[in-house]
Amino acid sequence: RKESSAASDVYKRQHIKRLLQELQTNVGGSDSSSSEYQYVNFVESALKDEEIFNSFRSDSRYRDILEHVSDDLGKKYYIKIREVLSHKEVVDICNAVKNVGNPRLLKYEGSKLNPATLRYINVGLDITKKFPNDKFKNIVEIGAGYGGQALVLENFFEIKNYTLIDLPQVNQLIQKFFSYHDPKFQYSFSEIETYTNNGKYDLFISNYAFSELPKKLQITAIKNVISNAKYGYMIVNNFNNFSFRYLSKAQYANNLPNLEVFDEIPESYMFNKIVTFKN
After folding, report:
1. What is the C-alpha to C-alpha distance for residues 129 and 123, in angstroms, rounded to an integer?
2. What is the DSSP letter of 226?
3. Which positions of the chain have pLDDT values less than 50?
4. How many angstroms separate the Cα of 85 from the Cα of each of 6, 35, 108, 113, 265?
5. pLDDT of amino acid 23
6. Cα–Cα nearest to 226, from 248, 201, 246
7. What secondary structure letter does DSSP report for 228?
8. Which of 24, 26, 112, 211 sits CB 3.0–4.6 Å from 238 for a disulfide?
9. Residue 201: its pLDDT value, please?
10. What pLDDT is attached to residue 30?
């Protein structure tokens, strides 16, 4: 009971801290925090400078945003994945995302693997579990990073078309990253605010990114992108009863049909949830 009470106290303190942070930002506007500003500037540098690009995934300015899976969480992903896949299968899928950009590698049963790629595999397996009878050939992703999730999902589905929606600089980075790979699917890029309807999608996916958009952009994304997807899968890290800056739980339910909410396994943060929907 003491442990449960202590956990509850921590949750409440973090919840209050979150609300205070939201109050300090411009509600409904774009987040101009120094970390995000540094991230965009760094991506631009990686596009211009080959030396920076060759190690972009190990640079702290990039890892703070994307390649930040801890050693402990990486091990939890690996253990969870091994409930379904053999070690060789895990290695083979990890090899689909080449170690371009010099990512951090950890040893798992003697093989050096990237923890962030393990997260992408865990997501892929969870999608197949939650939508076991569906074949996703047309996929759209908001917040695609360097394209690692797309390359991993190709191992689970026969993808024909993949639309990646992110900042223009990030989209250029993905295109450069893809040039070192050989994706079998056709891919295209867009931005939320300039997105034009590319038809219907089988699956919408977002790892954290959608839930980090200010509410105004979340509504725009739902109207322009998500409403055109048959199914949706998101890891969300701003999923609360009340929020100044983001959609609340009730607003998620009002805007996304047939919404279901699941615990994130393994949990990467106490507020995180998995949400799925079906149009």
Report:
1. 10
2. G
3. 2-4, 6-24, 26-32
4. 36, 36, 14, 15, 16
5. 44
6. 201
7. G
8. 211
9. 96
10. 47
Alpha carbons 204 and 201: distance in angstroms, whole number: 7
Measured CA to CA in angstroms, residue 235 lies from 127, 249, 275 at distances of 11, 14, 6
Instruction: Write the pLDDT tens digit of every residue in 162-203.
Output: 999 999 999 999 999 999 999 999 999 999 988 877 789 999
Radius of gyration, alpha carbons of the chain? 18
Between CA 273 and CA 269 the distance in angstroms is 9
Other Cβ atoms within 10 Å of 240 Cβ, number: 17
**CB atoms < 10 A from the CB of 132, how many?**
7
- Write the single-letter amino acid at 182: D
Q: Which residue has the tokens 């909410």?
A: 261
Tokens standing for 264?
A: 């994130």
Q: Rounded CA gap, 193 and 231, in Å?
A: 22
* Runs of H (alpha helix) within 24-114: 34-48, 50-53, 60-63, 71-81, 87-95
pLDDT at 25 (0 to 100):
52
Quote the CA–CA distance of 69 and 148 in Å, as a whole number. Answer: 14
The one-character DSSP state at 264 is -
